[in-house]
Every structure is written in C-alpha cells, then in structure tokens.
Amino acid sequence: MSEKPQLARREFLAAIGRTVGGSAMLRAMAAMGIASSLQACGSSSASPVAPLPPAPPPPPSSMMSPRPGDWPANVGVGKSVVILGAGIAGMTTALEMTRLGYACTVLEARPTAGGRNRTIRAGDAAIETDSSQQCIFDVDDDLYFNAGPSRIAHHHEFLLAYCREFGVALETFTNDNRAALLHSPNAFSGQPQLARRIISDKRGHIAELLATAINQGALDQQLSANDRANVLQMLSLYGDLDTSFAYTGSSRAGFPGQENTGSRQRGELLSPLQLQELVADVFWELRSSFSQGFDQQPTMLQPVGGMDRITRAFEGQIINDIVFDAVVTEIRKTIDGVQVSYDRMGTVSNIDADYCIPTIPAPVLAAIPNDFSAAHQSEIANFQYSSAVRLAFQSRRFWEQNHNIYGGISWTNQEITQIWYPNFGFGKPNGILLGAYVFDGPAGDAFTNRTPQERVDAALAQATNVHTEFANEAARGISVAWKKVPFQLGGWGTSDPGVLLTPDDNIFFAGEHLSILQGWQEGAILSAYQAIDGVVQRDII
To answer: Which end of the chain is less enclosed by CB atoms within 10 A, N or C?
Structure first.
C-alpha cells in the first residue's frame, strides 16, 4: 500500500487556518517554532484559502418592518390593492391589508396557493417547463416530499406567530445529527465518516494544539497565570484531553462498529482521525459547522404533515380574495393607480386598483408587459436566482435500521451535496428520503438541465457512494428543479434587491428575494411588511 502524500508546511498551516481561524490559533502556531511559515500563511502571496461563510450583516433599516398591529386601524378603508401571486408574501400582504380595511384581490396563476411552498404526495404531478412527473409514493400520511421550504428557524418569529394563530402544529426538524455522515471521494479512501467522529477529533486536535501553545508560553502576554489555568481547563473539556493535555481519542466519537448496526465494545475508543486529513480540505469544516449559522441553529421546526399545512392555513384566511388560474398578462400605471390584465382560462379581464403589489419571482415578472420605470425594469431583468434541485425517493428505512440515523443531513462533495432523512414516522417500515439537495452553481445547473430520469440515475449513483443501500432500496424517485417550475423559474433570489425596495409610483414590490432573509418564508413575510409600510405611510400623509 502506497504512503499517503504529506502536506507541505505552508499547505498544512493554511489548512489549519481554514479549520480554526483567529489570532489565538496563529499565535499557537508561532509558539511551536514556525513563525516564518506563519507569516507566509497570512501573506497575500500564500495560496488562496477558502474562507468560512461570513456572518450575515445586520438588516438595513429599509428592510426592517414592524409587527402586525403597528399600522393605524382602518387606514385602508376605501382603498383597493391588487396583489400578484399567492405565495407566502402575497398571502401575508392580503391578510394584513384586509385587516387594515383595504379591499384586496390576489391573482394567482396556478390552481392552488403557496408559491414555492409545496408538498408532493402520492398522485401529485411535478410539472416543469419541459417535462411532467407523477408521484408514485404509497398513500400514507408520512410519505411526502417538501419540494420547497422544509424548515423553520426558531427565531423566525413572524412565521411562527402565524402558525400559532392558525393552529398549525409543529414538530422538530433535525438539522444537525451527529450520527449522519460526511463524505468526500478524495479523503479517507472515499469512505463516509460519522459526523460525530469528524467533529470530536477536530475539536480534540485543536484543543491539544492550543494547550501546547499555552504550556510553551506563547500566550503569556495575553493571559495571566489564573487565565492560563482556566483556559487549559476549558480546552481539556472542549477537546476531551487527557491529564497531560494530549488528545488520544474520545468516547464522543463513538465506538467501533457503531457506524453500522451497533457495537457491544463500549469500552474501546476509535483511533483519532489524523489532523492532516481533517484540515486538508475545507469541506470538513464547512459541513461540520453548517448548523452553527444563525439561520440553521437548533431548534429548527417543521409543520406536522408537510410544509404546505402553512399555505393551506393562510389560504383559508383569505380564500375569498384569491382568483386562481389567473395569469397576469399586463401591468400598467393609471393616473391615480394601476390596471392589471389577466387571462383566466382563455378570458382576459382587467382590474383597476389604487395599488399593485407584485410578489411573483423576478424571472416571471420580467416577461409580463409593463410600464415600470427603467430602473425597476433593469433590476427585475437582471435579478439572479439559485438553480436549486431536489430529488426524493421512497425506501425502506435502512438509515434507521442499519445505521441508527434518525433525521438530519449527510453531506457529500459530489454534485448531490446533501442527503436528508425524514424527521417523522420513526420506526415505520418505509420513508421518503431526500437523495439530493443541490443548491446552485455548476452542480445545480447540471441537474436542472438533465431529464427527470437522468437526475434519478445520477442521484442514485452518487448517493450509493454514501449509503450502499441506495442502489437496491431507493425507488420511485421524483425531482423538482426550481428553475424549470412554471410561474417560478428559480429557487430563491440571490441579487441585491436594490431599487426594488422602493416603490414605482403606486406599485410596491415584495417577495422573499427582496428581504434580508432571501430563500426563507420569514423573508417573504418581512418583504410583505415592507410593502405594507410603504402603502400605509402614503395613505396616512
């Protein structure tokens, strides 16, 4: 067997920096006699290092919104609004403006409300611009596929408030499962690794390095004697170090055999994974730290029975205001308002209103004839959206029965990116397994451009590298490529909202793409509040 290639010192240090970051780690490296290499790692001439995603900036004041109820009561009496799109943004707008006295009409191109919030069950069709798939899951309350938003952060307070108001039952969404897998074909001989082992060994090695630096006096100028003792104690607990501050393995990583059906050898520790392999690729840090992001931190939630429970609840509140199968064909300004034309089953109608609030995605809006300002037209025409794709399969719950995985996400740096395990129906014979969740970039474009069967074939081939059971267990695959879904044509907005945050005469724009939380239902709600703010402020002047 050939020896593994050794990392050059500079590459090793750069990888350490990717994994740990921070000045304390750099000082620790200096304390170990490698100051010259340390300088090289931080210089502009060093090899480029992929940074961890930055923390999101605080929302600009123009994107902040009040809670419902902060608007003057009855401010909209005698005023009318036509809202384009019955997604979360459109329905929130209609609900709250109706409560303020506005007469609202919602034009929805499809026969159901919800926009990108969609749950697919047995018998449903997944229609794209160039194909149609039929869902052939078994009929069962726990056999469904959230083909749009799938989780709710615990701090998405407005969406959760509506769930409480509407009586939408919630359950936990497991975002971070230490029993799930991390997989790279280029590391550990291509063998998937338990997340708990990657995380535990990474922490142990980092803690040992920092403890070594402190014990060698590297941080004497920053730490008092009492501080040093306290930090060493903290590092010992953080990394599960032994009494000499060395990392020799931890029960946190699990025990031999547990990656499959289990182990009775609970007193035997796994040998630590080598630090060189853990820092050789930023993949391990990015994926094991995913749930540290503010919008991904526990507790995550989901509606019991499917995400569309939320849209059905919203729809029930404003059902009399929605015109379904109404495809908008023209948006024009009038002297004192707006006129919108729409085609409903071959019959073209016009509706005049004081205000218009388009909430439909920019790629759809761009194709509708309008007389928006040149700046608004340009922003809409150039707005970018993610090319996200998801594939779901019905399968025996081999992840539970064979691997003790109950909910959560496994990661791979293959195109499929993620495998999701259902967070409900534990112990049942079958479940719906997300075999791929591709966010964007070349992989998103590649999956989008494949036929549905080609997507299934590619997903099965790649997922089998993570779980060998995929080849024989996963079946009845169905996929959704957001950029090919009619009246959607994209996953979520990725451009700067720019001028679309400002009104164009009596037209106010909304949608998740115009919020600080692009891609989230909470963002759609915040954008609705932003549009309502603008209308209300104009009417109270």
So the answer is: N
Of 183 and 2, more confident: 183
| Residue 168 burial (CB count, 10 A) | 20
Within 10 A of 71 (CB to CB), how many other CB atoms are there? 22
> Each residue of 52-90: pLDDT tens digit?
333 334 444 344 444 565 899 999 999 999 999 999 999
Residue 114, token pair as written in the block: 């919800």
**pLDDT greater than 50 at residue 275:** yes
Radius of gyration of the chain (CA): 26
Q: What is the CATH number of domain 75-115+309-384+492-539?
A: 3.50.50.60
> Do residues 495 and 382 make contact, with C-beta atoms less than 8 angstroms apart?
yes
Q: Is the pLDDT of residue 293 over 70?
A: yes
Residue found under tokens 């790692």 = 41
Task: Identify whether 417 is preceded by a cis peptide bond (ω within 30 of 0).
Answer: no
Tell me the pairing of strands 152-153 and 193-194: unpaired
Please say whether the beta carbons of 500 and 514 come within 8 A.
yes
Q: What digits encode the pLDDT tens for the residues 204-239? A: 999 999 999 999 998 888 889 998 999 999 999 999
Angle between helices 157-166 and 521-539 (to 10 degrees): 90
Token couple for 28: 């620790």
- Contact call for residues 515 and 526 (beta carbons, < 8 A): yes
Measured CA angle at 489 (ends 346, 360), to 5 deg: 65
Beta bridge partners of 432: 394
What global pTM score does this model have? Answer: 0.86
Question: Which of 106, 94, 126, 119 minimizes the C-alpha distance to 344?
Answer: 106
CATH of 9-47+187-280, one of 3.40.630.10, 1.20.1440.240, 3.40.50.970, 1.20.120.530: 1.20.1440.240
Alpha-carbon distance of 496 to 516, in angstroms, equals: 9
